[in-house]
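Continuing the batch. This is chain 6 of the set; chains 1 through 5 are on the previous pages. Same settings as before, nothing changed between runs. Recording input and output for traceability.
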Amino acid sequence: MATCSTTQSQRTFVAIDIAKQHHEVLIECTDGSRQRWRMANTRHDYDQLRQRLEAVETPVLIGFEATGVYHRSLGHFLHQCGFELRLLSSLAMARTRDALYNSWDKNDPKDAQVLLHLLKTGVSQHYHDPLVHAINDLQELAQTHFQISQRKVRVQHSIMTHYLPLYFP
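Output for chain 6:
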């Protein structure tokens, strides 16, 4: 088994709940203290986040849930700054929230706590920035192919279930 130079207790964990306009940020330092704040989805707030994280002396591990396309700009920015990023599954988030709080009720501060829990327990994947790894175009092509295929099937089903019985009973 490979040994890691940094143990879990020597890391600062950052959980970010991504949204369209504002992100909830929850930081847990090595001493267990937590800081929470809300940041706008703007370059100015990205720079403030970078300054706060660079002021931390221990290695920083950042985790977030992929939310539409809203995570891409922040993920790209933090990756360019040299931070270690992790992607957390939406399904794991929902199941863990149900298990921890015995409720399906969700809100942004609660989601940030669930993200932090998943990040600390290691239930995450490495984040591969589509722009850096040059897979952005491939993702767009795959999405376009999926949409065209879905529309083709809808037209076929419409012909089979509506138009053929209408003209050939």
